[in-house]
Structures are given as C-alpha cells and as structure tokens.
Amino acid sequence: MAEKVIRVDDIDGSEGADVAKRDFEVLDRTFTIDLNDDNYKRLNEMLDALAPFIENAAEVKQAGKGRKSRTAKIKGYTNGDVRAWALREDIEVSERGKISDEVYAAFIEAHPDAKPDA
Question: How many Å apart are CA 62 and CA 5, to the nearest integer?
C-alpha cells in the first residue's frame, strides 16, 4: 500500500509541490523547516540581512546559576563528600570554592567506584 506525504508550509500553512524541508544555519546551529519556494526565498533574504549584524556583534554569555548548583566533577559523590574525605586524609582543601584537580584525582584514586564526570 502506498502512502502520500503532503508537506505543509510552516509559515503560511500552504500545500504544494514546492513545499520542502529546508535546512539553514544560524550561529553554527542547523535548523530545519518546511517552506514553499517564496517563503524560503524570504528566509534567505532575512538571513542575508541579519548576517552583518551577527558578524559585528559580541556574544553575551548567560549568567551562572549561582553557588548553590555546584556539583562535583565525579558521578555519585558531591563536593561535600570530596571535601570531607580530603580533610580526613589531611589533604589541604578549601571550605568553599573550587576544588583542585589534584584533590579530585586523589579522591578518584582512593574511590574506585568514583567515575569522572564527562
């Protein structure tokens, strides 16, 4: 049994033989949309008009989520676990802030079940 696929333009809802899945890139990300020839032409014109603005703009990094969301660099353990272990082992570690890579490495070596977070 045969099936017929009817593509519908995602912008104006039109159907037709010229409606197709169209890929386009913005800021090194690829998007796809179903467009007819006219809307695809409009999209390309808008992207061309936008290009100089993007090329001359500076990216604004999103603000961090704050200190409460700090997670350990290893799965199955928290930063608190790493700090408590380090203190028991007389390894110098700060009460707050970044835990050094050396402390993480020593913790992982002492805890074979600890898996580095990718």
Answer: 41
